[in-house]
Structures are given as C-alpha cells and as structure tokens.
Amino acid sequence: MSQTESYLAHKGFKSWALTMDHKRIGVMYLVTTHLFFLIGGFLALLLRLKLLSPGPALFSAHTYDVLFTMHGAMMIFLFIIPAIPSSLGNFFIPLLIGARDVAFPKLNLFSYYLFVSGILVILISLVQPIDTGWTFYTPFSAENSAAVTTVSFGLFLVGMSSILTGLNFIVTIHTLRAPGMTWYRLPLFIWGMYGTSVIQVLSTPVIGITFLLLVAERLFGVGFFDPAKGGDPLLFQHFFWFYSHPVVYVMILPAMGIISEVIPCFARKPIFGYKAIAYSALAIAFISFLVWGHHMFVSGMSTTAGVIFSFLTFFVAVPTGMKIFNWIATLYKGSISLDSPMLWALTFIFLFIIGGLTGLFLGSLATDVHVHDTYFLVAHFHYTMMGGTVMGLFSGLHYWYPKITGRMLDERWAKHAWWMIVVGFNVTFFPMFILGMQGMPRRYAEYPAKYHSLNVLATVGSWLLAVGIVIMFANFIRSLNRGAIAPANPWEALTLEWQVPSPPPEENFEVIPTVTDWPYSYGKETGDTRGK
Amino acid sequence: MAYYKSYVMVWIALIVLTGATVGVSFLNLGLWNAAVALVIASTKATLVGLYFMHLRHEIKLVIGFALFPLLFLALIIIGTLSDTMTR
Questions:
Q1: What pLDDT band is residue B34 in, cutting at 50, 70 and 90?
Q2: d(Cα A235, Cα B83) in Å, to the nearest integer?
Q3: CB contact (8 A) between residue A302 and residue B80
Q4: What is the pLDDT confidence band of residue A392, given thresholds at 50, 70 and 90?
Q5: For residues A93 and A101, is the Cβ–Cβ distance under 8 A?
Q6: Residue ranges making up the domain that contains B24
Q7: Hey, are the CB atoms on B79 and A234 less than 8 Å from each other?
Q8: Rounded CA gap, B71 and A380, in Å?
C-alpha cells in the first residue's frame, strides 16, 4: 500500500476487525457508542411518553424503573464515557501530536474488544433486567433478584477497556509527540484528553473493585455493605462516587478540549489564555477527586463531612469558570463565522453555563436538601452532560467529519438539525428545573396532577429533540456517499490533522512533521503569537 | 539461571508472607489484626511492584507514575473517614 492511500482504502470485514490503525478503531468506537446513544435516546422517549400522563399508563411502574435504569446505564457507561475519548480521542490524538499511531496499537484493539465483550455481557443481563438505577446503591442492589451480578461483570469489562485506553493515551502523549511539539505547543484537545486519561486510569479501578465487593456480597454473603454483618451501606456510595464523580469530568473534559479547538478556528483568533486552559484541565482532573461526598448530603453521611465536601465542591467551579472566560475572551473581537461546528460550540458554552451554575445549588449543603433527588437534579445533569458533553461531541463530529470521512456535511441540514435540537433540548429540560424546585421527585412512574402541564411540555420537547437528532444522523449517513468531496483543510485550521489529506493516509504522515509554533496563530502571519 | 534467581527468591518470599497472613489470622490481636494484615499485604505489593513489575529498574518518571496513585488511595481513605469518624 502506498503511503498516501487513504486509511479507508482496504475493504472487507477482516480489514476492520483485525485492524490496529487508531483511526479505524476510533471509527468502530464511534459507531458502537452512537448506536447506544440512539437506543438510550429511544428509551428516554418512552419514559417521557409515559410521563405524559400523571397516572398509570402505557407500562407498569416496574417497567418504568427498568427503563430509566437502562437509559442511565447505557448513556453513561456505553455512550458518554467512551464517546469522545475512545472515538474522537483515538482518531485524533496521534494526528494532533504528529504521530503515526498510539503507543500500543494492539492494546488499543484489545480495549475495543473488551468494550464489546462488556456490552455483550450486559445484554445477556436483559434476561432479568435490573431496576436499581445506574447507581446500583446498596442494600437494594445487594438483595434484589435481578441480574445485578451479570451487569457488574459487564461493567467491569467496560471499565478495564476504559483504563487501558487511558493508559494508552497517557503513554502516547508522553512519548510520541513530533519533534518540536513541546507541551505548550500541544493542541488544547490533547491537554483535555490527558486530564481525562489520568482520571480514567486512577478512578476506574475503584469502581471495578466496588463491583467486585458487591458481587462478593451477593454471591458469598460477605458483609461489606450489610450493617447486620458489620458493613456500611454508605461505604458503597463512597466508593461508587469516588469513581463516578471524577468520571463526569471524563465526560466533560474532552468536550472542553473540542471547544478549545473549534472556538479559535472559527473566531480566527489565537486562543486566549492557553496555559490557563491547559492547566485548568489538570486542575479539574485533580479537584474532581475531592468532591464525591456532595452526592451523599442526604444519604445519612455526617454533617461534618457534608460541610467539608460542600466547601471543596466550590473549588471545582473555579477552573471551569476560567475556561468559560477564556473562550469568551477568545471570541471577543474575533472574526466569527457561524458554521455548524461553531454553532455547536457556542451552544455548549450557553448550555454548560446553565448546567454548571445550577450545579452550585446542588453543591451547597442547604439548598441541596431541598432539591436533592428532584427533577432539578435531572435538569442540571442533562444540561451539563447533554448540553455540555453531547453538544461538544456534536461540535467535534461536525468539525472533524470531513477529516474522518473525506466528505463534507450538508451545512443546511446541519443547521436545521441544530435548531431542532437546541429548541427541543431546552423545552425538554428547562421545565424540569421548575418541576424540581416545586418538589417533583425523580425516578417515580407517577406524579401528582399539579405537575402535569410542565411534564407535557417536557415530553413535547423530547419529540422535537428526537426529530433534530434523526435529521442530524440522517445527514451524517447521507453525506458518507453524497457529500461534497472534502479538501484537506476546509476550515483553514492550523492543527496538524488538517495538514494531511482527508481522509488521512494509513500512516498519517508521510514524513513526521517538525513543529515550530503553537497551533493557534489564527489571523496572524507567522511566528509565535502568544501574548502579542 | 542467575537471571531468574531474584524472581524465585521474591516468589518464595511472597509464599512465606501469605503463610504469615494465614498464621496471623489465628491470633487475636484486637485492632492490630487489620494493621498486621495490611503491613504484610503492602510488603507483598511492594515486592511485586519492585521485582515482578520491574519498578526497581525503571526511570524516575515511571516510578513517579507508580507512586502517584498512593495519593489518591490516601484521599479515598481520608474522605471516607471524614464521614465515618464524625457520625
């Protein structure tokens, strides 16, 4: 195969199933994770349809519990955690740092198969679907008869895959940077992915161990969490959130990385505060390990611990706020073009500010008592995760689609989809803030009639959202064959992936480039433009 | 053979320490039960890290990466104790 032949040139099942090309593995993750995004989204539509009526309707309360558990578990573990790191991260980390592949290509393929094995095990569990919620709290998860053990094992495998991917990325970023690609010349997506990988490697083992403890309790009656045997049910929550809080930053940090690439490119301005954005990614990664107790304020945790965790929680808002200010400062006096990647990036900033600030209500000890386990939390979480991470992902997908596929998206349809999704998203989730403040608890199949009208509004919103998503995916699929042929660098971006053909050749770079500048000299002729 | 010698020695040490863990479990040392078990387990983990995982011969960066997670182990213990000790 010649050096310049596209990575997509080889056809056939085997050429994909046995590939060690980071780009193909990235694409396989992309397809797998988005499949679960669509399934998880469909389940959400069913849940919203059920909530159209306050009383019994459509399916039983138990089915409702099963559906929201599946929606949560699928979206969290099979979509949003791996969605950006394993797919776009895999595809673009080597390209962005000027490498030919990740450090351990075989391990990379092995991670993918671990991920798929985990998914298969989880699918087996559907024989006795679980209704514990995605959080698996004891004692309910330790005692109930559903296939909690099977799901735990499946998630253990998915977690292993996540650890190996993170490890692979850390080593890649340390050892495979092109000559001249110093740490401060790294694209900010790489800094975001580095922080993400550190969290994956450090926190995921804890959830793996926690699942093993849960299985030991279920199968062998060891009393880790059972008070009758000297255990502590809150211990499960401590372990669970020691992983699951940092992991929300596994979800958001890569999205923030994408935004840091898209904003300067479409504002044609050097990124404002490069080092602040870079270090804030690491600061978020570190602080994320100090705040897990804020999920447990009303669980029976001691008030002293509550005060400590509440206090620490506010610190995580600081580096997040720094990023937002830096992006907005980058936009200031920029030459902004509203192409679809930029629209998604701006949407990210807008929605994530709402999501982030409402997090402070939940992080404050006193207000959390009022809104804990209400729809306020559901709204906050979806504003950060869907309004944040998923909008960042969409921005990345629209930005990098020409590079991945060699075709341009239909911009007109991309914008139609954007309108539908932004309107649908807000109509779905904003009423939930109000419902939560009014006291409507989450995870109940039925609710008092006084919450009816806002629930109807939210359900109608979910339909708009769904139509938008369908349009967007139709555009993705249609453009694979019918999109205009993409030039190497349609956005005139300065990062390395745009300096190779679209789609990139199998070996990425014919000659490994020598880097002489940071990648954000937008609007300037040449030279390092920092601080000028 | 000399190449494997240190591995065999470490392996024997690990078996002896496992025996020690089992032996100690028959003694009632009160609160010290957990402490002794943890000291033995940590010693074994250190041996595995140093010899089987070659940390003894690694560059500082790799050793640093191996030690860094201990900070997080401390964090989870301190954070959890901040709850259980103040209830």
A1: confident
A2: 10
A3: no
A4: very high
A5: no
A6: 1-53
A7: no
A8: 31
